[in-house]
Amino acid sequence: MSLVQASSLTKTYRVGDIDVPAIKGIDFAIEASSFVAFVGPSGSGKSTLLNMVGCLDHPSSGTLRVLATDIATLDRRAAARFRGEHIGFVFQDFNLIPVLTVFENVEYPLRMVQEWPAAKRREQVLRMLDAVGMADQADKRPDQISGGQKQRVAVARALVSQPKLVLADEPTANLDHDTAYRILELMKKMRDDFGTTFIFSTHDPKIMGEAETTFTLEDGRLMTNSNGGSHV
User: Fold this and answer.
1) What is the pTM of this model?
2) Which residues pair with 13 in a beta bridge?
3) Of these four, 13, 84, 155, 169, which has the most CB atoms within 10 Å of its CB?
4) Residue 2 DSSP code
């Protein structure tokens, strides 16, 4: 079975007295250890789709299975636990906690959801920081490191709980050209080392060029994938 599978998936938001369809009956499948991008103009449904895959929002109809779990069956608490155990997130604004050190930011998911003893947490955090080349910055706070370094820390935080899936929403938007490529290469290395699937929502042609599969969204519909298959 695919790592992520959607069938006739829809999402409609209620705005006042009006129903606003954001995702309109799409089908797709994503395999394990993939490097995948959802692309399209603003308002095409990319972020809505990523939120549903990440168990931050429920489908209105259709089915969405992540790691063989029907997302629609999860209540708020179950969804939070599922995210904590199986999904990592990387954001364009890094979303590091400013009062915590680099080490503490990466450790945070383990303290919040995972029931890891302190010694095991420390070992895992240092392993991830070493993997992204940030072990020597462990005691610094976010305002003491560069944008590229912040995104490296965000990647380490996303991977510290050893998730099967990492969702990245415009992760290179605030990085310069060279740093963005280095972060993408780092993510590919982490995918190769740990077998993690990366799914991006992006406008960035650099990510589109590196992705092994690209799905194009337009007005809530899945139009094409990187193999040229039509989804209209």
Assistant:
1) 0.86
2) 20
3) 155
4) -
